[in-house]
Request: fold
Amino acid sequence: MRNGGTNEDDGTRWLSHFHDPLRVWASAGLWGSATASPLWAQEAPDFNEWTWQAALQRFRRGLTEQRAKDRNRQFAELFRNLGQLTHLVADMSVPEHVRNDAHPLRDIWPFRYMDYEGWCQRTLTDLNTPARLDPGEGVFPPHPDNGQAYYRNLYDLAGVLFTRSRLPGLSPVSNLWDSWAPPEDGQYNPALGTTAAPVGPEPVGLAEYTNFNYLSWDTRHFWESSRRYEHPSAEHLHPRLVRVPLSAGGHDEVVCFGPPQGGPVTTYPYDPNVWCVASTDLHWQEWLALNPGDRLTVSKLDQTAFAYYAVNLVPRAIAYGVALVDYFFRGRVEVEAVGDQLTVRNPSELALDGRATVYADAPDGTRARVSGLENLRVALAPGASLTWTGFAPPPTPDGRYLLVFEGEIEVAPGSGARDAAVAGRSFPWVPPPPSACDVCPAGCAFASIQAAIVAASAGSQIVVCPGTYGENLDFRGKALHLRSAEGPWRTVVDGGGRAPVVTFSSGEGFGSVLEGFTLTGGAGIAGGIFLTQSSPTIVRNVIRGNTGQFGGGILVGNLAYPVIVGNWIAENRAELDAGGFFIGYKSLPTLYANTVYGNVAEYYGGAWWQYLWDFPLVRNSIFWGNTQVQGPPSYTYAWGDVTYSNLEGWPSGETGGEGNTSADPRFVHPAAGDLHLRADSPCRDAGTGRWEPCPPGDPRPFPACLSINPFGVPAIDLLAYRAQVTRYLALDIDGAPRPQGAAPDQGAHELLPHP
Reply:
């Protein structure tokens, strides 16, 4: 960039570094014929290969050229290009450049002391020097707070200028030069008013500010009838004299302008509301006597005056140059590539719209487009993102890739106006993490659930990713926790009409857990689950669309004591008895917080049926819409210890045990299979938190403690039973905690949020 700043003065390029903001732009350059600076920066491709548009193309090529040496050359030229553009902006802080006052002889005595730019070159050779800048020594006076607020304000004002575009076909970056194109010569930007304070509230181009407030040597004589510039002028401003002490003794006197304060004042070292334009050899009172009104007859521009010029002009030159570079690089994109997904996000406050392409580098540095990720449409509001799948990047030496965006980006937040821009973002590709699942349709250790069961050892957990698995499962007596990763709505096991979907027939205990699946398509003696001589835990499943001879949903038989909690058992069919579940021969299942709906039996037990020596424990459940084809309504249920449940058509119109109800549960959409409760459901808070089957104080273990146990069902491990029921009653079928109110809701779903 430094080289670019120097190269911009090569040959006759300096002729296009002038711009008079009081002239129409076509004739605003030097002598009215040379190209004006803001046009030179954008509209002179035949004569100037270092324009704003050329910089954008160099940026794009620096990101996308095939060979590394070509990319490096383009980037070197890009920063030279930006250096030349910032040179043009900085020249607008020089009074001679904005009043078309050429100064080619400034290095020759006596002209070397007559222009501000020459003074800057001789005096401010190193702005990084820690020495105090003071007009008594020919350099800056200090700013209050070290100028931090002042510089920040200048930068913010420059940024506002991008919201305006004055000439068709030009980037609004031209507003850094001049934010108003006069319809005819001699007109000031109305935004300037009658006074443009050193930091005015209304942002204007740097040429406008400098022309309005400061003098050049050949435009300092206000008494000339041919003068072109009305400002700066005592007619509109308030002159006063500032006495500046010199290090060699004595003082210099500078004519300054500022707010009306009545009479001469001394504002050394610095008053941000006062700016100084010229020195005078005469005493202040003599100057006023000789020159009433606004006629400054005796003035000169010397190092003291130029030091005060630099107080405001150098910070503006820097702020506007920084604003140009920041505007050029305003494009921001964030990229994340994980597995086969590529996500592009717009982290900025500026909307963008264009095309993006992903590039990869070969080991020799050759850069090429990634197939399938070319010319992607990217239109993103602030904070928005887009994701593409199927990202299969070729290997690179460092595992990194490059996304290049080219299109239009907003010029300022919320402005709606857009301007051409280029942006690039390097990003790493992150391989997909080792799957958290043991089973998935592709990419896991197993594609089959049954294969995972066969390979597992006792005490294992098998996690199944979403998908539909055409299988019939058998736990084979193993104490396994088989669960879905994302719940029953996305993980389906389809028995395909071949056999029951899941079988427990090898003495499984409470440690054999089936959790979070949709079981459908089962057939045989049972439909969804066939369970005999086993006591597994069956929780948070949807058992739907199965057909069995006994137990369309579940068959529980032969000394079985399963824990069945939080399931939907719906729309199953029994060819004989028990559309929902069948219980046979000294079995005692625990049926807590289940929703049993729409099941059909050909003969007995639309909801459930059992033999005389079986006895289910039912709590907090819903039985609704279950029917039998040939049996009477009283045969919808058998019997058992049923409390705090909602039962449709309980025998003899009675609800049976404690806390039972019989009212429409008001499901969300049962015809569409949605058995979640509506907010006005009578099942809300209608359950009980007391679930243990043994009466308080009864020393007998479960199930011997039951008041009805006529057939001497063997006792089971009450501690293990309590642990399983406690654990799984804490969540509803969606995995939400329960209860949410004073008591649990009836059924598998707990309403959220609870008032």
Q: What stands out?
A: Residues 440 and 465 are 5 Å apart (CA to CA). The first strand starts at residue 238 and ends at 245.
